[in-house]
Amino acid sequence: MRLNSAEIEKANQVHSAAHRRDVEVLSEQLARRGLDPEKLIAKIGAFQVAVPSWALGTGGTRFGRFPIGGEPGSLDQKIEDAGLLRALSRQTASISLHIPWDIPRDAKATRELAAGLGLKFDAVNSNTFQDAKNHSNMPRGLSYKFGSLCHSDAQVRRQAVEHNLEVVRYGVELGSEAITVWLADGTNYPGQANFRRQFERVRDSLKEIYKALPPHWAMFTEHKPYEPNFYSSVVSDWGSSLLLARATGERCRCLVDLGHHLPNTNIEQIVSRLLMEGRLAGFHFNDSKYSDDDLTTGCIKSYQLFLIFVELVEFLEGGSIKNPPLAWMIDASHNTKDPLEDLVQSLEAIALAYGQALLLPRRELEEAQDHNDPAWAQEILQNAYRTDVRPLLAEARLRQGGAIYPVEAYRRLGVRERLVKERGSGTVATGL
Length: 432
Ligand code: AFD
Ligand code: MN
Ligand code: MN
Description:
Layout: H1 5-32, H2 37-46, E1 51-52, E2 60-61, E3 64-65, H3 75-89, E4 94-96, H4 107-116, E5 120-121, E6 124-125, H5 154-174, E7 178-182, E8 186-187, H6 195-211, E9 218-222, E10 232-233, H7 238-248, E11 252-257, H8 267-276, E12 280-285, H9 302-316, E13 327-330, H10 339-358, H11 362-370, H12 374-385, H13 390-399, H14 406-412, H15 415-423
Parallel strand pairs: 1-4, 4-5, 6-7, 7-9, 9-11, 11-12, 12-13
Antiparallel strand pairs: 2-3, 8-10
Bound molecules: alpha-D-allopyranose and manganese (II) ion (MN) (2 copies).
């Protein structure tokens, strides 16, 4: 199904008068601080975040998987859902596919479908974390029980390399320009494998994949310290990721998934370091209380998200940092919420943190830092963080034809009910 502009306009009518007033009041406040609301609206409106194809259906909880109804049962339907998100939010212009969950059987048709909805294809993701043994898509059928690119057996590594190359081929057909490699490789017990040799094997395998990339393509390495039943993972932290990126090549960079850190890790500092080295690839946005919970972005640590954007804005606003453009993506899982509503909430949280970080009087902050004035530095940060810029977000959406209040519009327009009617209540999306 598709949402047309007349429907969205109708849903907007209810909020229109109050929204106007909110924008006026906020604009006046911002002008007093020397900020130009028009510039902020333009920047917020231009900020686009990719949607992962695997997040459009429900994931599972310990109690099982509870499909929401009307879930996308095919790649085409996933693209349609991303189109719905785009129509409402105007904050997402691309979709990130996962192979083999989303193999495009007819790339031309898939591209056309996406283009018609205003969507492009973001980084493609390979999958060597589900065992290849009985996978029809893995011709050699060798097991990843003891890892993929790190495996002691050269044939298993070969299979994993070939899979990644196949993912690149699909990505080329769709117009993607990067591959994200996340590995579940590691050990379950101390002594099981040699840390150094495992790491060297991953490094050499990544180099092989990198060598085969089209010249304009980038490779993103995604680190993660743990998996259930793990003692160690090979690409455990940003340091390992950076070592791999450096060894692999200039266009290999480090992706930061917000859930892939040990508790209390200072993620904003990692972001600063990677930017400084020109090796930050981008983000997988989500949130977590304890580990890789893949919850809605900003639902728990929203101040951390703001602080991350404080670092990012320094780069985005054209300072002296030299880093290639960043890839922005959500990587969340929806177990008890409607995935589309949840994604809309994540998009809002990301734009909010960005908008708040844009409010910072940077020179004043630097002055406070240079004068060792932590109290004033905190005033500056808090003044930005505690400003509710949601009217600017709504205005940015509205100007592009989106919804003033996307979740409410989604419900008012009965999107899920219409999807259930169209697709049935038993469909299940591919993914975890
Ligand atoms: C898993 C990983 C990681 C990765 C995603 C897609 O934890 O976040 O990005 O799969 O490959 O959830
Ligand atoms: Mn991720
Ligand atoms: Mn994850």
